[in-house]
Design a protein that fits this description.
Distance between the termini: 81 Å
Helix content: 25-40%
CATH class: Alpha Beta
Number of helices: 13
Keywords: Golgi apparatus, Hydrolase, Membrane, Signal-anchor, Transmembrane, Transmembrane helix
Strand content: 5-15%
Order of helices and strands: HHEEHEHHHEHEHEEHEHEHEEHEEEH
CATH architecture: Alpha-Beta Barrel
Family: Belongs to the glycosyl hydrolase 99 family.
CATH topology: TIM Barrel
Main location: Golgi
Largest sheet: 10 strands, mixed
Number of domains: 1
Radius of gyration: 27 Å
InterPro entries: Glyco_Hydrolase_99
Structural class: alpha/beta
Number of strands: 14
Protein name: Glycoprotein endo-alpha-1,2-mannosidase
Amino acid sequence: ILNYDIMARFRRRTCIILLLFILFICSIMMALKTLRPDRAGFGDPFGLGLLPELQQRTVLLDNKQNSLDRIQGDTATRVSNLHGIAVNTMKASVPPVNKLEEELSSPNYNFHIFYYSWFGNPQFDGKYIHWNHPLLPHWDPKIANNYPKGRHNPPEDIGSNFYPELGSYSSKDPSVIEAHMKQMRSASTGVIVLSWYPPGMADENGEPTDDLVPVILDYAHKYNLKVTFHIEPYKDRDDRSMYHNVKYIIDKYGGHPAFYRHKTSTGRFLPMFYVYDSYVTIPEIWANLLTVSGSQTIRNTPYDALFIALLVEERHKHDIHRSGFDGMYTYFATNGFSYGSSHHNWASLKAFCDSNNLMFIPSVGPGYIDTSIRPWNNHNTRNRVNGKYYETAFSAALLVRPEIISITSFNEWHEGTQIEKAIPKRTGQVVYLDYKPHKPNVYLELTQKWSEKYRKEQEQWLM
């Protein structure tokens, strides 16, 4: 009887311990489940941290689908769909509607991104344009003789060290333009700085592109993006021709809802023009256009605007101020290449601008490599370091608290500064660089991350 009683107590004790253990395990599992973020399945933009193989977030869904999903109610926010783009065979999984709206509803109009519409292919242009870029010779014949000559032969051999996911596309292809707008919007940029030549004019390797501006404006408006103009150094650019061309742009495109106007400290909304290689023209000529007393003054007229000059050398800051410009930008994505593009000089440039009522717009980029078109220019290559170079540039820009940050670039493929999606590719003897171990959209992800970080820090600056 005693042995039976002992065994019964032992069994009861064992059952109680087992039950408590099961309850403990269940509690742990519930606690871990509550710690899991709601959006973990789609990747947290702040959790990117240059970790490979994070799932891509995507914004490839049109506005009509957004409205439909909202009507379907809260349950739709937990559903994933597939939505194809009609460019090559790109496909992406669609995040929940609340995440989608978070990405698509708030472009950052203080993030300006340089965009080039000069690419062409036989399907849309009758020939390749810019993808077949020539190899540029070094100015010293002795050095030039040591490097190859000729030009690239698309579609397998293009004038870039990287290869675009969209292939050797045409900038006229509507599906390409739309894909670009989606990518720029997914990156939380807000203003497209469009490379521009006057009607009938182009760079020496391209064709006129002004006729494409209305289409770009329309697609930009669809994605709630704005467009401003990056005026290139066209032939005979001076005060008179600039007045004429600014008037042309504002008269022709100023009424479009996607045309960018910047709110000034005085409450005015003015167009903005970036002026590339502005230092080529002497300050006295610019002053004719940009100062109130100038002979060709545009000030206090219906065509007044904010004009942003390119600063390369330190002395240019005084020329820019004397010329009547409203601000300066640095463009180049090569830290150390010029005074303006060197991150450690940004604080002093910002201080100069603040004391002279000028805007300072630092330009950040993901890296630089142009040896596909300048094979002798290895010394200016800046390795992307799996995204760390880009993040370092953003960090340096935020330190000086700029009103606007510009990004070099969305698609300057010749100079390897693009954040557009790129893919691994090997053709014959050509092995293209890529974004591995990350996915093709990693630089869009990083831009979106820093756009949000900039927004939050800017709120603190204004307090």
